Amino acid sequence: MARIGVFVCHCGENIGRTVDCEAVANACGELPGVVHAVDYKYMCSDPGQNLIKEAIAEKNLTGVVVAACSPHMHEKTFRKATEGAGLNPYLCEMTNIREQCSWIHEDRDAATAKAIDLTRFISEKIKRNSPLAPISISLERRALVIGGGISGLQAALDMADGGREVVLVEKQPSIGGHMSRLSETFPTLDCSQCILTPRMVEVHQHPRIKLLTYSEIESVDGYIGNFSVKIRKKARGVDETRCNGCGECQSVCPMKKIPSEFDAGLGNRTAIYVPFPQAVPNIPVIDRENCLRIKGMQKKKAKAACGRCAEACGRDAIDFEQEDTFVTEKVGAIVVATGYQLYSIGKEQTRKGITGYGEYGYGTVPDVIDGMQFERIASASGPSGGEIVRPSDGKVPKRVVFLQCIGSREPSKGIEYCSKLCCMYVAKHTMLYRHKVHDGEAIVFYMDIRAGGKGYDEFVRRAIEEDGAKYIRGRVSSIQREGEKVRLTGFDTLSGEQMEIDADMVVLATAMQAQPGIESLAQKLSVSYDGHGFINEAHPKLRPVDTNTAGVFVAGACQAPRDIPDSVAMASATASKVLGMFSKERLEREPTVAGVDKVTCSGCFHCERACPYGAVERYEVLNRSGEVEKVIAEVNEGVCQGCGSCQVACPSKSIELEGFTDAQIFAAINAL
Amino acid sequence: MRELQELSSKLLSEGDVSVVIGYEEGPRGVRPAFIRTPEETNRLVFDHRAVQNLAVYLSPRRAHLRKRGRPAVVIKGCDARAVAGLLRESQISRDDVVLIGVRCGGVYRDPESNGPLSEENVADRCTGCDLREPGHVDHLVGELPSEPPATDRRKSRIAGIEAMSPEERFDFWSSELERCIRCHACREVCPMCVCERCVCEKTDPSWVESSPHLRGALAWQITHALHLAGRCSDCGECERACPAGIPLSLIKGKVNQVVEDRFDYRAGDDPDVPSPLGDFRLEDDQEFIK
Amino acid sequence: MNEATAARPSSEGEAFEPRIVAFVCNWCTYTGADLAGTSRIQMAPNVRIVRLPCTGRIDPLFVVKAFERGADGVIVSGCHPGDCHYTAGNYHARRRFAVFRETLSFLGIDLDRLTFSWVSASEGRKWSEIVNETTARVRELGPFTSYRDLVDEG
């Protein structure tokens, strides 16, 4: 039999002023199953809580109803008190007679009647409450970081420094990401390589970081605390354990004219190559598309076409026959830090619904380049050794025009968002240019200047005021070759003038886009992504680095366009989330999760469709001879977040959310 | 007919299936037949009287039928919707059943009818049927007959009810549902009622009261209609089975219409096209939400 | 119905005061209703809130049962699209309730007795308006006698 105690709080005068608390207690004392009902000035005070504890002990209560403020305010308090008295905390519920009664009504009778009603609902509901114990799930206290750009490096280092093992997976042959390609960084103009390279080395040498470069995520199984991730290690053609990074192989490779991806096509590389001198690990990779030997093997030529690298290698590290291998890593948490790609200006697009700018002649008019190419030109380690020269003839450009918002904020091209950092890097470019070409002219076409951030607006001002960049508000409608010049036709929207400028070089500040293939990774992780392919955060304000899949976090530009400080901050935030999660031996989850009635479930899996978290799994019921009798739903308690959408979807009501079971809600409605 | 009989005979004699579920002559029109030997296949018939939705016999609720081995089932295009539903909801697996699709020129409302199809005797669902030739079947038999005559009988009845005031509608349905004896024939005959235990039989709590009074009858019909939203194959068997003659297919027809209007969806014969309930779009209409 | 505490007019003469049940989600509307309280926004005392985790957990059968138990009106309210604590519960609910209300209407339940709303945690004012409007509308419609008569027969 239920033995319910009802405790009515006056909250000083907050409740007592409009609700007759004594009358509420008296009325509730008459309710079936209620064996104890009192009112008190401050239930949340120590003496108030003691009233509850004493009553539990003396009256042997099976349920506690506290009629007081909002459960958001004090449910934890009263559940703790209940637990302190030896009763399961989930046998305590609150009735909200303050925020939703006394504070919003003046009529004392009506408010009192309402308070009694609300308390009656809950006292009926609580008779159906079950004692619940927190769900404890095992926890693999290792983390996986996907992406070895600045975000991934930061997250990995923070977690490894925090004492946890980290597996870092990078799909390129080297870690470092886009940041390793930048010349200087805003707003301080410190050299990107100088601040990044030490971090890369630190990651490489960290005893708790397992680095898997040239690798991709094949599949992800499991759930928070217990992910099992299969990783494909792509065939490098070079035995990592033997190679000592001497570089002999590169120097003998006959394929010397392959455009370097790292230098954005402005420099060349060989077929066996290290992407850039500071690459980590400093181990070459064979480009299978361009290696003569491998192409020969693919065509099944009898005679080996080449093999100079293998001959040159003193360590016998070259392995043309190498194949992709797989490793499986068990981890408890995953940080997604896959970064971005630059918007493609031309026709070729990796995302649906996006079009390029044919009118800007990128790829056809020489000396029209994108921002990343400018970074490489300006970089001391770039193809021109840091001298600002234009690609077509190696001359120093005397007039460079920079166009902002290429792709960004252009719904007609398929991208309506602001890429956020182009304003800053264009200002940086003008400064780098002016610092090296003192008599050069830097002209910027912009739509708006968005320089929110510490020291950012000052930086743009410096570009204009100290370094003399000329900013024109307007758009350029076409770019054409005019002799050795590049002719831009545009419009100054402030003066209303049509403009024609002959430049030596044009730099297009392209938008940031989600990585190609991010959808497939997101699906493997069952995290959601927006229409642009950016990973969705669990809550835009309060949970910006969580995803909707427990145990999977997001950092950097794969979530939205991010600059370096933002990316690093996010990365550290994910690390702090993961380390917090890993601070315990096992994970404890709220027990308010769904469970399936195995007898009545007919396996229609409506619940599976309704679940936002993919928590519903398929469970095979076997008969005595071990054959599958039927396949029914099962809820993974580690994944379920307790929304209850499954329960409404279930036609036979065979799935129940603890804490809000049908029996509980039915009882409350029945008390109407 | 001969084609159907020969195919069935072949399937049975080659051991592909152990039973063919089709139609045979019965005391009132045609009735479902369970043919187990090649010799019996000459009993199989198919014509305008074949109103029954035989997909109902594939439901896992009828485990006793399943135990008799792999069936072949004769289905019309409209029945194919129900089969697709069962496949979609993991209730049967495609390999467990052989589907014999028949090209259909429409059926009567009542299997006892005879004569050519007319506006008066044709089943409501045949009007505008886009599945006269069922897809996703293993075998397809018969010639495609001409289109059945159209009727707007159900449409106009639904429109008539919609034109009433809420009170009139409530009175109308009260007077209809008052006759409900909660025999649940509508459920038993429904191919999409696949629950092992119907919510009506759940006692703790008992959302749908099971005794035969208006309150429970109303709750049950609301529940059945909602459970069928986006799943109903529109076979009309619920209404045909109702001993009290309650026009249940008006409710189902209305809900199907709502689903079609709002989500541009009609249950089809393709099991890979998911139902819109259980899914959503960010831009779904929400004109009714303040 | 509990006779002792019914806000309804017991009988003769007294003005009709509707009983309204609100099924709300914990994260947005319940918190919004709390905010209305902390902001001391006065509103009609006719609404009794039942708290659920998410609109996705609000079963159409709750509404049916509320009417069966004598509610004159029902409010269903949750997070605005995009705000759902569970990312998608409200979207599922939106489809379910879209079909549900038209079904109810077809069976003769006056949709003026039902309010669906999105009320965020910051919309205490909007919550009070939803409560007041619904109360006024249902008061206008009068007691839900047709449904209650079914109950009496049962």
Structure description:
The complex is a heterotrimer of chains A (about 675), B (about 290) and C (about 150). Chain A is an alpha/beta fold and about 675 residues long. Chain A is about 25% helix and about 25% strand. Chain B is of the alpha/beta class and about 290 residues long. Chain B is built from 9 helices and 5 strands. In chain B, strand 3 (about 70-75), helix 3 and strand 4 form a beta-alpha-beta unit. Chain C has about 150 residues and is an alpha/beta fold. Chain C has 5 helices and 4 strands. In chain C, strands 2-1-3-4 form a 4-stranded parallel β-sheet, with helices on both faces. In chain C, helix 3 (about 90-105) links the parallel strand 3 and strand 4. In chain C, helix 1 crosses helix 4. The longest helix of chain C has 18 residues, at about 90-105.
Provide a quick synopsis of the model.
The complex is a heterotrimer of chains A (672), B (290) and C (154). Chain A contains 18 helices and 33 strands.
Helical segment count of chain B = 9
Tell the overall outline of chain A: elongated
Give the integer mean of the pLDDT values of chain A: 93
Derived structural class of chain A: alpha/beta
Which keywords apply here?
heterotrimer, A: 672 residues, alpha/beta, Rossmann fold, FAD/NAD(P)-binding domain, seven-stranded mixed β-sheet, five-stranded parallel β-sheet, 18 helices, 33 strands, 27% helix, B: 290 residues, 5 strands, 9% strand
Topology readout:
The complex is a heterotrimer of chains A (672), B (290) and C (154).
Chain A: E1 4-9, H1 21-29, E2 34-40, H2 46-59, E3 63-68, H3 71-84, E4 92-96, H4 98-102, H5 108-127, E5 135-137, E6 142-146, H6 150-161, E7 165-169, E8 184-185, E9 190-191, H7 192-205, E10 209-212, E11 215-223, E12 226-233, H8 248-252, E13 258-259, E14 268-269, E15 272-273, E16 285-286, H9 292-298, H10 308-312, E17 325-331, E18 333-336, E19 340-342, E20 368-370, H11 371-378, E21 399-406, H12 422-436, E22 441-446, H13 456-465, E23 470-482, E24 485-492, E25 497-503, E26 505-510, E27 512-514, H14 518-525, E28 552-554, H15 564-581, E29 587-589, E30 594-596, H16 606-610, E31 616-622, E32 628-635, H17 645-649, E33 655-657, H18 662-670
Parallel strand pairs in A: 1-2, 1-3, 3-4, 6-7, 6-18, 7-10, 18-28, 20-26, 21-22, 21-26, 22-23
Antiparallel strand pairs in A: 5-29, 8-9, 11-12, 12-17, 13-14, 15-16, 19-27, 23-24, 24-25, 30-33, 31-32
Chain B: H1 2-13, E1 19-25, E2 30-35, H2 63-66, E3 71-75, H3 77-88, E4 98-102, E5 139-141, H4 153-162, H5 166-177, H6 185-188, H7 214-228, H8 237-241, H9 248-263
Parallel strand pairs in B: 1-3, 3-4, 4-5
Antiparallel strand pairs in B: 1-2
Helix pairs in contact in B: 4-9, 7-9
Chain C: E1 20-25, H1 29-38, E2 47-52, H2 60-68, E3 73-78, H3 89-106, E4 114-118, H4 124-141, H5 145-153
Parallel strand pairs in C: 1-2, 1-3, 3-4
